[in-house]
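Researcher: Good morning. I'm working through a list of sequences from a screen, and I'd like to move beyond sequence-only analysis. For each chain I'm collecting a predicted structure so we can compare shapes side by side. This is the next one on the list. No need for commentary yet; just the structure.
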Amino acid sequence: MTETKHEVLRAHLEGLIDAELGPDERLPAERDLALQFGVSRMTVRQALDRLERERRVYRVRGAGTFVARPPITKGIELTSFSEDMRRRGLRPGSLLRAAEAVAAGAEVGVALGLRPGDEVYHVARVRTADGAPMCIEDVYLPAGAVPGLLELPLDGSLYEALYLRYHIRLIRADQSIRAVVLDRDAAALLDVPAFSPALLVERTAFDQRDRAVERAVSTYRADRYAFEAEIVRPAERG
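Model: Good morning. Structure tokens for this chain:
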């Protein structure tokens, strides 16, 4: 069966993305593609729209269409950011924004089973992969469970520090994920345009004694991060 011009165009674009152009390199202009393949610019735009929905390209107003970096996917296992990055051959890193003792407050207190006035340690970081910002992370831990935490280096995995220093192993968590839009400050930290989409992940993690030890609020770049889950339909349903 003869391929249509649209199919030939799409195959050409996929070949550029897969084999010729690297991440953040610019694709040919819509006008040039339309002339090369003898199609309308609307047809070119539709092909690029589909690639953008598949997160294979991204657009910058006034600059063109660029090859997107492959998204990092995370399953539903309870793993640290550092573990996720290393599994994918990326170098995890952190930019420390705050490390302080604060009152738990109502929301964090409820999550960790504390009174609002109880002391918690707040560690705020921008987490990076190969130097690129991936998420904004705010972690709260009961001060009584992790004495001296703020004196430790906080540029690596907190999960590793909890296990090696305090013999705390986090084994399960309650977690919610929802879509949000980044304000200007958050977008600047993640090096994306203001009002870009993001994933807000709120998690309360429990240790081997079933104590709530970590309350984490993380904002992930939606263009670089995705969550995967296997779901199974109950056997008794048709």
